[in-house]
Amino acid sequence: MKGVWVKKRKTWVSTLVLVAVVVAALVWQADELLGPADSAASPTPPVPAGSGPPGIPDGDTAKSHLAELAVAPDGSMAGYDREKFPHWSSQGDNCNTREVVLERDGTDVKAGENCAPTSGTWYSAYDGATWSDPADLDIDHVVPLAAAWRSGASGWTDDRRGDFANDLDGPQLIAVTDNVNQEKGDKSPDQWKPPSVSYWCTYASMWVTVKHKWELTISDMEQTALTSMLGRC
Fold first, then answer.
1. Contact at 8 Å (CB) between 77 and 150?
2. Which range of residues forms the domain containing residue 143?
3. Which pick of 98, 134, 193, 221 has the fewest CB atoms within 10 Å?
4. How far apart (Å, rounded) are the C-alpha atoms in residues 201 and 144?
C-alpha cells in the first residue's frame, strides 16, 4: 500500500507542476498580446483644489468641437500688436483680470487693498510646480494673442479682441509658471505642449474650446496635434 501511495503522490505533484507551467505560459502569452499598459490611456490625475479655469469640457465634447472647427492655413502676422488686444481690464473692486485669475487659481490667497495677492499658493498644471510668490506666475492666454491673430482675430475690432484677451468665462486664462509660459510664447500645440504629459488631454480640450467659442480656425498640423492629445482623454 505504501508503494501505491507514493506513486499517487508523485502523479499528483507532476499534475500540479504541469498546471503551473500551463498557467505561466498563458500569462506570458497574454502579456505579449496586450503589451504594457498604455500611459496615454491613463486618466489625468486630479488637479489640486483652487486651480484651473472654468468651462473645460470632457474629452468627447472637445473631440466634437474639434471636428467643427474650420481648417485653414495660418494667416499673416502683418499689423499684429499686443496693444490691439487690450488687457488686463478692470473687473471691479480695484481688481484687474490678472488679479482675478490669481485669486481664482490659487489656494488660501490673501490680497491687499489694491487686490494684488500678498500670499497664497499656486499650482501650475503645465509643469506640476507649486509656487508661493505670485511673481513666479504668468497668466497664460491658452490660445496666445498672436495665434488668435493668425487664425481670425486680425479681422476683429479692438473691443472684441479685448474681450478675448480678458475672457474669464471660458478656459482661456490660467496661472502657470512664468518661464514655462515664456517658453510657450505664441506657439500652437503642434509646436509646443505642456511639460506635464498627463495634462495634454486637458490642455487640448481648453485650446479647442477657446477656438470653438471664438470661431477661430486651425491649421492642418494643429488639428493633427490636437487629435493626438485628445486621444489621451
1. yes
2. 43-230
3. 221
4. 18
Three-class DSSP category at 102: helix
Quick one: 134 and 19 in the same domain? no
What total of structural domains would you count in the chain? 2
All residues at 6 or more sequence positions from 147 whose CB lies less than 8 Å from its CB, including other chains: 186, 187, 188
Which amino acid is located at 154 in the chain? S
Count Cβ atoms within 10 A of the Cβ of residue 154 and give its class: 0-12 exposed, 13-18 middle, 19 or more buried. middle
The verdict on 101 and 206 lying in the same domain is yes
pLDDT tens per residue, the chain (233 residues)?
Answer: 444 333 433 343 343 333 343 333 333 333 333 333 333 333 334 444 455 799 999 999 999 999 999 999 999 999 999 999 999 999 998 999 999 999 999 999 999 888 999 999 999 999 999 999 999 999 999 999 999 999 999 999 999 999 999 999 999 999 999 999 999 999 999 999 999 999 999 999 999 999 999 999 999 999 999 999 999 99
The Cα 160–Cα 183 span in angstroms is 27
pTM exceeds cut of 0.90: no
For the chain, how big is the Rg over CA atoms in Å? 26
The span from the CA of 203 to the CA of 27, in Å, is 37
